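Residues pack. Consider this:
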Amino acid sequence: MTARAWGLTQAWSLARLGFSLAWLWLRTARPGGTEAQRCKVRRKRREEASRLVVATLGRLKGVFVKAGQFAALRLDLVPPEAQALLASLRDRVPPRPPEEIRAVLEAELGAPLAGRFRDFSAEPIGAASIAQVHRATLLDGTPVAVKVQYAWLARSLRADLFWLRRVLRLLAGRRRRFDAERLFREFARGMAEELDFEREASSARAIAENLASEPQILVPEVHAGHSTRRVLTMTFHPCIPVLDRERLSARGIAPAQIVAPIARAYSRQVFVDGLFHADPHPGNLFVVDEPGAAERPRILFVDFGLSRRLDPELRDEIRRALYALMQRDSEAFLGGMERMGMIAADGREAAAGAIRTMFERLSGVGAPLGLGSEQVLSLKDEAKALLQETPGVQLPNDLLLYARTMTYLFSLARELDPEADVMKLCLPQLLRFLAQPPGGSSGGTGDASDA
């Protein structure tokens, strides 16, 4: 642990990675054969390089796994062949020893474990890159899930970020131009927020309040007396993963029944509240296993570490971009990107051409508000191609999280119920968003300060 805290472990691993990548390049620098054969060699080289990078990040764990997941989101900067591999980085890690978890809990809660919990399971129900979760029972009998942050993360955070910053600067100097410092600041800010469980608790409370009018949505209650900056305790609810068709069927729940509440909840968060659960994958969405679930299933949201409150200026620009898209006004769309600093000084011409091409491809599909799920996902693919093929474009990370959240909503709905009309479900909240004046905000009574 001392070697990691001083940055020696990271330096050694990154140096080994650098040597492996250099050797790979030397072995394949001058491929022979036809042009098609040379392209195949270069493609294999990029794929092998991506695997080496992902393997190194996985071994370093913690912040480096989060960095890989962050990079997978950067459609504007990361080559397509690397994105799937980076996205495959999972938070699952071997759990830490029970005595280490006990030490963190007792230090954070200021009392022996037996003095705060009636019982506490030593076996975690989940172990991720920054924390693991344990079942427990409070002294009053309330079943809870306790999320405990690993002690070594805080000790190695400064060194981890030091080396990540150096790597970003190196990449910015050798590959296509991008603002390394801006990218680093976005990642470091997000990492600091994920490590602050008090912020996560605040986000969970605010989202719960915002969604209080949705009877089919459940956000677990935060137990403040058992929560700190590194420990988060929330009520435990028996539940079933949203994609576990077999268990849902056994309870008499059809997948189509859960599409509408999920769509309403996400459209409310992203279009009205501006504060949204930004880590939308099947491991964070469940169906509550309770009596009456077959008639009206409730959806359980968990893990609010990656929640985001969009800056009002960014919300206004998203609204303007949607208007430009509806009107097929590529110049207005481009102007918004420029106002937000998304286009490099010498990248305007390339970005303008790519946007015009995207709008031309969309011209035959009708008005955006009339699009179905397939057309929305097609629009996502067009935007993805724009980002991957146009140098000098760099988007704010919060905007990418916003887009990923909406894309996930449509993809999940298609998997659960291909006949579901998600656009129709989202339309009331989308129209409410479009009707807001510049700087306007509606809904969202909760206060997740700076969430």
The first helix runs from residue 2 to 5. Residues 203-451 form one domain. The two ends are 31 Å apart (CA to CA). The mean pLDDT is 86.
